[in-house]
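Retro notes, item 3 of 5
We never archived the inputs for the (2S)-amino(hydroxy)ethanoic acid complex last cycle. Fixing that now. Sequence and ligand:
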Amino acid sequence: MPAVSLEKAQRIMRRIDTLAQYSAMDGMVTRAYLTAQHKAAHQQLAEWMQQAGLQTWQDEVGNQWGRLVSANPTQGTLIIGSHSDTVVNAGKYDGPLGVIMAIEALASLQGQALPFHVDVVAFADEEGTRFNTTLLGSSGVCGCWNPAWLDIVDADGISIGQALAEFGLEAAAIGQASRQAESLKGYLEVHIEQGPMLESLDLAVGVVTGIAGAKRYLIDIKGVAGHAGTVPLALRHDALCAAAEMISCTESFAQQQQIVATVGKCQIRGGAVNVIPGNVQFSLDIRSQDQAQLELCCQQLLEQYRTIAAARAVTINIENIYQASAVPCDAKLQAQWGEAVAAVTGKPAYYLSSGAGHDAMMMANITPMGMLFLRCEKGISHNPRENVQLDDVAVALACLIQMLHSASAW
Ligand code: HGY
Ligand code: MN
Ligand code: MN
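Structure as it came back at the time:
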């Protein structure tokens, strides 16, 4: 039975607390792509990687890497890790747990002769917090970077191209970040479940079967701004009331279709207390485990939006800003994770799907990927109340180390 080490788990928890301090806002965890906090956090991760005896480097899109070098690599490189960026006012485990646990696992392997390099990666942008489009770090690694992204601007009008230059990176060199599929053995990611299943079953860990597909849109509604005191209701083209009708039909549509759809951002452009809203922009995030259902639901829901806009004589502009197809986890890696979980816990592994997106869905483009979920308290995530148990961290670490020990036989 692989050893479960509380001492190593404690070091992981201490380091997660340390990393959480690299934040753009006092009193909360907010760390976005190509910011001073990104740079400082990656310097700290590089230090821990070096302490673990790893060779370290930053790639051309700003991801931080550490390599456990094999003296005689006869197999492809195994990549393990997760993302280091966060949402606004985030929990401190979503992403960093997987990165810091990977560093700890490689520190435990020091001196072991493996027939392959193991690379740990901290992906610099999984959430899309600053530029609204996500998986930028892993897209660069998979050769999926879209040059058009360089023109995407943040809330301050700074483009990704400008931000890369200010960070000290060359947009023209981004292609060099991509890894060749034939040189890789696989990708493993440990992540908090961000849902309630494992806690409801009193399980520390679970093996991920697949990741939901997701699409994100920016909806821009233009009505007619007017005087709040003089324009009768029947003559209004109120952009906010149109948006409100669309947002409420989003909830009822998702319930009927048994999918998830979320309006996370909504803004009245140039709003004032005594002005009928003339322009409103809101975001739509819509997901399903079934790709065909996701495509159909997007069509149907957006058609409902257009019908509402026509009825209210407002104009609607729909911009698709992100999409990632539903991805199954590699069957062999699922089975390997299952064996590791059974060896560590003495119980058969539980298998579950992921409603949240992960870098693993991007990595699946170039190499087999497998994920392990760790129980998180009340399933809370994207929230400072996100929390995990020390014992569960120890169990997950033992499973990851078990995977690394068994990997040469995959
Ligand atoms: O949105 C997601 O699913 C992930 O947390 N980025
Ligand atoms: Mn995450
Ligand atoms: Mn997240």
